[in-house]
Amino acid sequence: MRLVGENIEIGVYPISKARELAREQELDLVEISPKAVPPVCKVIDYKKFMYEQKKREKVLKSKATKVTVKEIRFGPQTDEHDYEFKKKHAIKFLQDGAKLKAFVFFKGRSIIFKEQGHILLLKLAQELEDYGKVEQMPKLEGKRMIMFISPKKTK
Fold this sequence. Notes:
Blueprint: E1 2-5, E2 11-12, H1 15-24, E3 28-33, E4 40-44, H2 46-63, E5 69-74, H3 80-95, E6 99-105, H4 114-127, E7 132-141, E8 144-151
Parallel strand pairs: 1-4, 5-6
Antiparallel strand pairs: 1-2, 3-4, 6-8, 7-8
C-alpha cells in the first residue's frame, strides 16, 4: 500500500511495515483511497482528524445562507396604488436577499381574467428587473397564477 502522512517517507510499503510505522508514532493507520492501485493509507491521529472534520462542517453549515421565501398576493383587478405599495415591499424583500413568490389569486368567477393576472405579473417582473431575476415565469396552478423571482447577487 502507498503510505502518506507527516514524519513519514512517502512510498509503497507492505501492510505490516505500515502498521509498524503508525504504532511507532502512536498514531492510527487510516485508509484514504481504497480503490487506488495500490491503496492509499495515511498515518494520522484519527480522533483529532474526526474532531477537525466536524468543526469544519459546523463552520460551513453556519456560513450557508438560509433562503427565505416572501409572498406577495395580488387580485386580478388590483388597482395602481395597491400595486405600487406591494411593489415597494417586493423590492425590500429582494434587497434583503429573500426569494419572492408573487401570485395572483382568482376568486370565484374572476378566473376569466387570467390574461390580466398574467400581464400584472409580467409587469411586476419587468419593474423588478434591477433587483432580481425571474426564476419561474407566471404559471397557473389551480386558482393561483404563481411567479418566482430570486434576488440578484450583490457584491
